[in-house]
């Protein structure tokens, strides 16, 4: 099969064009002159099309990889939640206690400020009379 492909390539027009380009490069002393450069958009479209074809032809490889990645992510989340439930709960319980304490402290300070403000306001009104 490979020998048949080689023989058909050697007799094709593409082979003759490549041989002609090689002869031109030899004549210029090895300097390659760029001809017919494809645009960025054309290159992107061709490469994207090739990638889609390869993914379609080798569907099992890509599907297995994505299934394995999803399973790994689910296992990571399950392990993370398990460790947080075992080791992290007392930490959050302590934080909740601290928040409750600071709420009480802020309430006390605020009420003290309000009481002192009322006291000084009352005193200032008494002195004016």
From TrEMBL:
Transmembrane regions listed in the UniProt entry: 74-92
Keywords attached to this entry: Membrane, Transmembrane, Transmembrane helix, Transport
Keyword Transmembrane helix: yes
Stated family: Belongs to the ABC transporter superfamily. ABCG family. Eye pigment precursor importer (TC 3.A.1.204) subfamily.
PANTHER family the UniProt entry points to: ABC TRANSPORTER G FAMILY MEMBER 11, OS09G0472100 PROTEIN
Name assigned to this protein: ABC-2 type transporter
Organism: Musa troglodytarum (fe'i banana)
Lineage: Eukaryota, Viridiplantae, Streptophyta, Embryophyta, Tracheophyta
């Amino acid at each position: 099969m490979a020998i048949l492909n080689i023989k058909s390539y050697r007799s094709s027009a593409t082979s003759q064009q490549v041989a002609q380009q090689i002869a031109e490069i030899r004549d210029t002393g090895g300097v390659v002159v760029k001809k017919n450069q494809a645009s960025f958009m054309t290159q992107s479209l061709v490469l994207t099309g090739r990638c889609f074809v390869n993914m379609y032809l080798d569907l099992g490889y890509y599907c297995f990889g994505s299934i394995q990645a999803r399973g790994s992510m689910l296992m990571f989340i399950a392990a993370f939640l398990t460790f947080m439930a075992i080791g992290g709960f007392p930490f959050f319980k302590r934080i909740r206690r601290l928040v409750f304490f600071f709420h009480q402290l802020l309430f006390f300070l605020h009420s003290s400020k309000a009481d002192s403000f009322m006291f000084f306001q009352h005193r200032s009104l008494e002195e004016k009379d």
